[in-house]
Amino acid sequence: MELEEMQSVWSEISGQLEKQKKLTDKMIIMMTQEQYRKKWNKIAYPEIFGSIICFSVALLIFINIDKLETWYNILFGLASASILITLPILSLRSINKMSGINFSNNSYKDTLIQYTKNKKQFQSLQKVAYYLSFILIFLILPVTSKIMGGKDMFTGIKNLWALIIFIPIGILFFVFFTKWVRKCYGNNINEAENILKDLQAEE
Fold first, then answer.
1. Domain range enclosing 129
2. Based on the structure, what is the number of domains in the chain?
3. Torsion angle (degrees, nearest 10) of CA 142, 51, 38, 42
4. 30: phi > 0 → left, psi -120 to 50 → alpha, else beta; which?
5. Would you say residue 126 lies in a domain?
6. What is the average per-residue pLDDT within 65-78?
7. 5 occurs within a structural domain
8. For 137-161, what is each residue's pLDDT tens digit?
9. Residue 23 has pLDDT above 80, yes or no
10. Terminal Cα distance for the chain, rounded
11. Counting beta carbons within 10 angstroms of the beta carbon of residue 121, is it exposed (0 to 12), middle (13 to 18) or buried (19 or more)?
């Protein structure tokens, strides 16, 4: 085989190897992105379910707003409904930003910058959600009492037992449930971050 023919064959083989490498790299990125999204879906699905419950309760409050009667119960009802609507929307938007990071269209550096920025926003939102949810316990209790039982918790000593019993129970449940959720979310976030770091090793 002449030198020119060997060079031509080698050039063709090199081109094919380069194409195969690009295809392999693209497949690795696609698989990595799919694994990354699966980790965030483990956070997204419970949030979607929780959002449906929040929207349903907010709708229930609006439908029964006339049953609240007094200005303070109406105020508590509107405040509760506002939190129940606002928090899920912000949370789902934040999760969508995290899971929607596109590995293939950006360099690893740009992807990491975007991830870090979105992660800080998500964690900040989680802190805000924690405090607002704690406040919601106190806001929604008299609203629930009025809508479901027709009783005003602020108009008689008879209803003090409900405050004494249900508020501590609600706080305890909230604390333990929040810790469990934060632990689950933290594990999935760390796993998603590790997947992102593994992408650097492939480059």
1. 11-202
2. 1
3. 20
4. alpha
5. yes
6. 86
7. no
8. 888 888 887 888 777 776 754 555 6
9. no
10. 37
11. middle
